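Target protein
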Amino acid sequence: MSALTDRLSLDECINEVCPWSGDRVSADALTLYKGQVVGFCSPSCREKFEKAVTHFDARLDRSKALKA
């Protein structure tokens, strides 16, 4: 876990269930996304999310640049 995720809290989490599994979120599987704390049931689900949003955010940025 990084220093950033060590400081995140379930109290700040915007969701109660993991968007991947549907299980309850866990304090050791939180991440910060667009200024909000998002929770997952396990670190592996968090890593899947981080990989997916990194991919999509990069594609969105390229798409915006082409339209500008």
Summary: The radius of gyration is 13 Å.
